[in-house]
């Protein structure tokens, strides 16, 4: 098993084919819905699983060479036997979870799990007779107490949104190892560059490829990485449910991944500098970034992450209106959800991801009204820091 974090060389070359048709360097987009057979003998040999080409395919929903190459690169970066690509992060999560659970099973997840994942488990899976256990962020004693023979899946994220909470993934894996529970880490915020969760004992690693892997805010995608024994079950579910990546989208994700290591290195650096600058600003109440000594999970972050990633959350004095003034005063950072792309984005969770909640409910789910979430891009570090500082000053003067 691979345990070293991937390098830039891995990001450019891992999983690449060297036997391309027409000797092209770059992959072509294999636009085909189906595949042909020379004659009935050829078809029957394939159906018996005796084709000399183990990668041969018969229909587009079951696989595509452009997609397959991207899957090989993701598996290499995550240090796993295999990976599967999906048309979105949610398609990756829902297909994977559905593939593994049956009525009577229990799924454990943490309260700060991505809103739509939580909605899928809490609202949709319960209709199918799958129960769930919700734990407070990072509560591993709670996990050890809650886990039982019914527990089939333990889902966590690292770092989480928006407070960048980190969990001791090795201990989590250790707790689950003695049981039938499989572990799944949504590693979207960590990226394969900052953490190799498979080497920490985690069974399945999921990414929203929409974020860092694609990296250009121009394509949706998702992936799951893990051992072939589990992924063959997920593959079968994907064949049935039909959530397959379009080869155009796959090509964009594969191309984006070639610069993943460079981009994440810049984002790690810029986010840390922004976090430090904000922490020193009098109009900021609190900054959340895992690589700051003040973060509640700093010790775990130092142990498990090579970098803090590109997201910095902070609470501005002056509540909802104070945060609104800061966001509106930014000139470089654009207002949008999402993260991990080349452009710096900013949002106020109270009026974006959690806009349906009233003031008391916001407090109940732990979203401060003055919270701002910044997702740094790859612009010059000093430009991103400068933009935030001028926005803070402008908002304070307004
Ligand atoms: C964005 C995101 C998702 C969902 O991914 P999509 O590609 O938008 O479907 C899942 N988990 C996390 C942590 C995310 O940030």
Automatic annotation (TrEMBL):
One of its GO terms (molecular function) is pyridoxal phosphate binding. The keyword Signal does not apply. The modification N6-(pyridoxal phosphate)lysine is found at residue 211. PROSITE patterns: CYS_MET_METAB_PP. It comes from the Bacteria. InterPro entries: CGS1/2, Cys/Met-Metab_PyrdxlP-dep_enz, Cys_met_metab_PP, PyrdxlP-dep_Trfase, PyrdxlP-dep_Trfase_major, PyrdxlP-dep_Trfase_small. Keywords: Aminotransferase, Pyridoxal phosphate, Transferase. GO terms for biological process: methionine biosynthetic process; transsulfuration. Its cofactor is pyridoxal 5'-phosphate. Coiled coil: none annotated. Belongs to the trans-sulfuration enzymes family. This is Aminotransferase class I/II-fold pyridoxal phosphate-dependent enzyme.
